Amino acid sequence: MFEISVQQTFSAGHALREYKGKCENVHGHNYRVEVTVAGEALNRIGLLVDFTDLKREMKAIIDRLDHQFVNDLEPFTKLNPSAENIARYFYDELQGSLRANEVPVAVTQVRLWETDGQSATFRP
């Protein structure tokens, strides 16, 4: 099994609905997201996925979230914009966009940091 991982950053605000504490108020984070992709085979030039292609797919998602109030964006108008749910959102969005890869791959993990010391991970 081969794996590659890419990290990127973005900034966004959110408020956790029904949270009884400070995080129920509007606040923001400088997020870091890491996506790990795995597959059993490499393409004809020895790559699982080109890092540039994975970064481009991640950037398309980041561009929707960066410097936005996440609560105002679908699916977070109803879904609580927790780190866990944002990590799952990256997974859902990337899983479909990587289907056109030259060799079969799957997103195996998305880790989202809200701070240097706090992260949430989604694995299918």
Short description:
The chain has helices spanning 51-65, 83-97, and strands at 2-14, 27-39, 106-115, 118-122. It is of the alpha+beta class and 124 residues long.
Structural summary, described in words:
By secondary structure, the chain is of the alpha+beta class. The chain has a single domain (2-122), classed as Tetrahydropterin Synthase, Chain A (2-Layer Sandwich), CATH 3.30.479. The chain has 2 helices and 4 strands, in the order ββααββ. It has a 4-stranded antiparallel sheet with strand order 1-2-3-4, with helices on one face. Strand 3 and strand 4 (118-122) form a beta hairpin. The protein is elongated, with a radius of gyration of 15 Å. 21% of the residues are buried.
Q: Please, what is the average pLDDT?
A: 95
Residue share in β-strands: 25-35%
- Shape verdict: elongated
Structural class: alpha+beta
**For the terminal residues, how far apart are their CA atoms?**
17 Å
Indicate the low-confidence ranges by residue numbers.
none
Helix tally equals 2
Sequence of secondary-structure elements: EEHHEE
In the CATH hierarchy, what is the class? Alpha Beta
Helix proportion of residues, in percent?
Answer: 10-25%
* Adjacency order of strands in the biggest sheet: 1-2-3-4
Assign the CATH superfamily. Answer: 6-pyruvoyl tetrahydropterin synthase/QueD
Briefly note the CATH topology name.
Tetrahydropterin Synthase, Chain A
Largest sheet, strands/sense/barrel: 4 strands, antiparallel
Which value, in Å, is the CA radius of gyration? 15 Å
Total domain units: 1
CATH architecture: 2-Layer Sandwich
Number of strands: 4
